[in-house]
Design brief:
two-stranded antiparallel sheet, mainly alpha, globular, 12 helices, ABC transporter involved in vitamin B12 uptake, BtuC
């Protein structure tokens, strides 16, 4: 029973963070853009969520608002890079640094959401449908549905003309220009969508943990990159598997690895080290499978 509870909890975390991984998938794999904004837009979504929930706003509406504000963070990075001519890596660092102060202004260094306040896991619609279930199972089902819904919407978008142009920016930007489209605008659009998803993930994490911390974004870009690379490496030979599916599996697999490390008695203060080592191992494995090609 304890093992089953642990498995459900780990899968839930994998589903939640898949939302972040979708965002990193867009910037890293599709746009070929090393976007460090993630470490700022993730806690931004959480900060907005904590403040709005404390002030009595509907938790489902909070998800949309958090995603919209995160999209603005992506817009800022895109504007700095495309319109002001700042290098992609530096543009992300600038926005990430600015967002740290913005998040502190919004919610302070820490903000707790009281148990009496409804979240997406305890609000009336969920309670009506899943009421008899335990909170753990409600979290599992809600996050699974959310992860699959976002995946399906993203898959549908990538099949549209706009989505195909977005994919072309990373693979062949000349083609986009040939089609009389501004590749800079498409980059900005990609960053807007990606950071909207990252902030959405931050919002769900805040509602799941009922807390915001200004440092909760630290290392999220590493997690996102690792899950994307794990997923795409696992399914490299299966061309029929969509990128979003691979990323979802990568997120769950990564969370399972971390949980195994914790179960083996690894001290909590060494988790970031384990994340870094696992990321390095995945990079090396991926490089070997590509015949020595580099990721960065």
């Amino acid at each position: 029973m304890v093992f089953l509870d642990l498995l459900i909890s780990t899968l839930t975390q994998g589903f939640i963070y898949a939302l972040l991984s979708y965002g990193v998938f867009i910037t890293y794999k599709i746009l070929d853009f090393p976007d460090l904004t993630v470490d700022g837009s993730f806690p931004l979504g959480a900060a907005i969520t904590a403040v709005l929930l404390v002030n009595g706003m509907d938790p489902y509406l909070v998800l949309l608002i958090s995603a919209a504000v995160g999209a603005l963070a992506g817009l800022a990075t895109g504007f700095i890079h495309v319109r002001l001519g700042v290098r992609d890596l530096l543009a992300g660092i600038i926005t990430m640094t600015a967002l740290f102060s913005v998040n502190l202004q919004i919610a302070g260094s820490n903000l707790a959401v009281e148990r009496a306040i409804d979240t997406i896991f305890t609000a009336k619609p969920v309670m009506v449908i899943l009421g008899p279930m335990s909170l753990m199972m409600r979290k599992f089902i809600v996050t699974l549905v959310l992860a699959l819904l976002v995946k399906l919407l993203l898959d549908l978008y990538l099949k549209t003309k706009s989505g195909l142009l977005l994919r072309a920016v990373g693979d062949n930007s000349t083609l986009v220009t040939t089609l009389a489209k501004d590749k800079g605008t498409m980059k900005i659009l990609g960053l807007v969508i990606a950071n909207g998803l990252v902030a959405l993930c931050g919002s769900v994490v805040c509602q799941e943990q009922r807390a915001f911390a200004s440092t909760m974004g630290t290392g999220q870009v590493v997690f996102g990159l690792a899950t994307v690379i794990i997923g795409t490496t696992l399914f490299r030979r299966f061309s029929f598997v969509k990128g979003t599916t691979a990323v979802l599996v990568g997120s769950v697999f990564y969370k399972i690895c971390i949980q195994v490390a914790i179960s083996l008695g690894l001290p909590a203060n060494l988790l970031k080290l384990v994340m870094a080592v696992l990321f390095l191992a995945v990079l090396i494995l991926g490089e070997k499978k590509k015949g020595g090609a580099k990721y960065a």
